Prior knowledge:
Oligomer: single chain
Strand order of the largest sheet: 4-3-5-6-7
Number of helices: 9
Low-confidence stretches: none
Amino acid sequence: MRESPKIRKLVALLSRLPGVGEKTAQRYVLHLLTADPVVAKELGGELATLHDELRPCERCGNVAEVVPGEPAVICAICKDSKRDSRLLCVVGRVHDLLAIERTGAMRGRYFVLGRLLSPLEGIGPEDLPLPRLVSRIREEGVTEIIVATPPSVDGEATALLLKRELASLGVTMTRIASGVPHGGDLEYADPITMGRALSGRQSL
């Protein structure tokens, strides 16, 4: 029996998601097809408004909810007055920020680069938001920067670039310690490992 064009299209769309292969996508589609129709309708409704209701935080790059009437889109972490604004953790992606947040060990705030330095992919220093980072450090009186890029080739290259570019600002720079496997992604690290990496950070 040939697959319905509708199913093939949905499978193709879902297969674009990271970590979702064709077979997994097909299982998702068939599950939604046989489950309560309300599930598919709610999922479709939420996906349709995703970009209208969620945007990058204008201050740090984290995911933030769009609040009607507020001129700026600011995330909950940046709004939290209990956070130490003098401590800034620089990460490559939002996934890494969420991994660190799960540990409960980070009392400061964040800055998401959005990408890592990668000559092989054509990503150079000019492609990173370094001017915004420098402005943030100066405006908020940051005294310590935790560089929490992954322990990969690109992550280490980005850490060295940050050390060079931010050295003149006179802030203390630390790097998350070992505990995260070399070549691994922060989003897959368990909370205990990530907590130890933060607690044992070293001077950069």
